[in-house]
Amino acid sequence: MLKKLFSVRKILSYGLILSTIYACYGIYVKVHYWGFNFAPKQNANVWTIEAHINFEPNGEPIKVSLATPSTAKEFKVLEEDVIAPDYKVKKITQDGVKRYLLTSPAQKELQNIYYRVLLFDNINGKGKETAPQPKAPEKPYMDEQMAAVAQELLELAKPLEGDYPQKLIRLFNQNPPNPTVVSFLPLKKSQKDTVEAIRNLLALKNIPTRTARGIKLAESKKAFSPDLMLEAYIDKRWKLYNIQTAQIGLPEDFVIFQRGGESLMDVEGGENSSVQFSVLKSIHSSFNLAGKRAELAKQKSSFEYSIYNLPLKEQNTIKWLSIFPLAILVIVLMRNVVGIQTMGTFTPMLLSMSLVKTGFWQGLLCFAVIVGLGLIIRTLLSRLNLLLVPRISAVVIFVILIMESLTVFGYKMDWDIALSAVFFPIIIMAWIIERASITWEEDGPVNAGKEVLWSLVVAIITYFVICNEYIRHIMFAFNELNLVILFIVMLLGTYTGYRLTELRRFAPLVKGK
After folding, report:
1. What are 177-188's pLDDT values in tens digits?
2. Closest C-alpha to 49, from 230, 189, 337, 254
């Protein structure tokens, strides 16, 4: 019983199952947390948002407070910095909002401060953020007249479409404006006044609200101010509302720069302050952002000890090494399952690598010329009755001379085909010629031709496997698959049944029965 459970094939099968589970887990982590993709050359948009603050100092010590975004569901912060000479800069958290606090002694000239943040992995969220129940909003102070107007506005909003925030937004955006709305707002109303008025009315209905400032991710030559939006806690979620259209959710290519808090920027010791934003898009490789994504997912240590943290030169080398196990699997299948005989075990794989360097058709032509001339020379050498080592050495030297001749001839004729000859492995080519000659002498020219032909066929199949950009990317990005290939190769080593070519060979015997 134990032998059946722990036979070689069973153990290898268990290993294959475990390696498959491990590979699936590794792929899930890399896709979900590191941002890897199954398609090659996947890029991510990185948006640079720059805030330009300027104000006139009034001769008093200066204190500037600027709200900043923090990593959220909709985007991640790659990096941020502040350019403010002669200012002390520190990060603080005020009312749950992260801010930069800049302080300086009294200044005389016009002040310019720049804040820059790089965001990536922006998604078009629905603006419905699940959150615990916030505390009940404070009722706004109103005199009797304003309280009566507020109640009238709530009654006027009831017939309108949508939930309460949408009803009020639609009421405040009616054209022509409702006289009751006009009386409830200041004479010189601003968007901020409208949001504040709607928040006060929603507070009367015990609906928690907060302001939000967002930025449209679109490159523009002109500086702009962030859009003011409203968030209300309804149905155990924070819902985002467009203050002009009453639409729920984030607009397309839009990020919330600041949530909560009463102000985007506060300036003490200055006057006539303003803040203007500009946006710039850049393209980054998903691999370049993988380290930052892993850090945000608290997997920094696992990324640091991965091959993706190596310099690009080493990564390019490993990228080719990662595809070799799949090429080996192709050869194992061709030899042990299909039953094809080749010149040496891994000769086709080396030839396929040469074809990658030379180009497909150029490589095939060079291979035919070198092997053809090599066989003629080997036939002449066999008449000299040389010993094995000197004979093979002579073939190697002749192969080198053929490659040199092809290179010179190709240079003079301006043919890239002949120049590709130098990429073929010299020793392997010499061994193919020697092996083909011996097979020719022992089994005849037909069998020798078959072995050379099948070696080339397997090399071509392997070439198309390792040359595929998608396959190369997947094997490098998800190198856990090589462990699965290892157990598949070992399991194929336990296969003792008929090969496909043998089934065809013995088919007449089966029919005879």
Report:
1. 888 888 888 767
2. 254
